[in-house]
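2024-03-11 09:14:02 INFO queue: dequeued item LysR family transcriptional regulator, len=302
2024-03-11 09:14:02 INFO validating residues
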Amino acid sequence: MATFTFDQLEAFATVVEQGSFSAAARKLKKDRSTVHQLVAFLEIDWGVELFNREGKTPKLSPDAIRLYKYATLLLEQRLEVQNIANNIGSDIEDSLTISYDETMPVSVLFKTEMELSSAFPYTRVNYLSQQKDLAIQSIQEGRVDLTLQLISYRSKPHKGLAGINIGSIHFGVYVSADSELLDHEPCSLQLMQTKKQLILQSLLSAELDNVAIFSANYQVLTRIDFLVSCLEKSPLTWSILPTHLAEPYVKSKQIKRCDVAFFDGDISWGCGLISSQNSDKGPVFLKAAECLKKAMKESHYY
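2024-03-11 09:14:37 INFO prediction written
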């Protein structure tokens, strides 16, 4: 059976990537003769000529092309195993799961992911879309570590959970682009109460129904794209939507923002970060919470 060492694989792969034994030696901080020897012993062990050395620079032989691909894969796996072992020794979590309501800004999640992947490249961070009731259940069952959710002043504290307000999400009233309601701006509460209102399920999960539902004739929908499609085809319906989610549909002229007389300025509701009081908080968890708070503030959702 052919044998090899990781030092031999590293020398072989580095010669391929650097284009010469001299450049590989500088990269690896080894003598040129040592790199030559490592590759030569590998060729003997495998019984394969890895390089054609007739020219000024070594050329990878046809038989060695496939071996190079597997050699780099093994070297990457060795590095990953080493980093996972280092994580265990330093109490860095192997994985972390963050859930979020779909009204949360994607930019906040993306900034958080960029910082976490840079700081903890070998920790798997999962992102799950969950409405508040399912997110809280997932935290209680240990399947989610922290969640980003809309919150209401009516929300009762859940035993064993901790939550902090890290900003707010801005909302507006929207109608179809050709809605007759636009002829009555600013629309009165009495007028809007006579029209059908489309409600995002997220608002009900966040216990915002008492401040978000104004019409007795309302319909609940989960997905915003489906809600916008219904809004677009129904000229006398209206909805309260997060401005950052609605604006792309406004730009595509599917819907328009409608001024109403019963709201002064922007509508905004709190955004909370919820986690378990009982679980241990490792460095990845603490960094994730810090990044989410920072990203919310930098994204002007504060």
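2024-03-11 09:14:37 INFO annotate: The CA atoms of residues 20 and 55 lie 11 Å apart.
2024-03-11 09:14:38 INFO item closed
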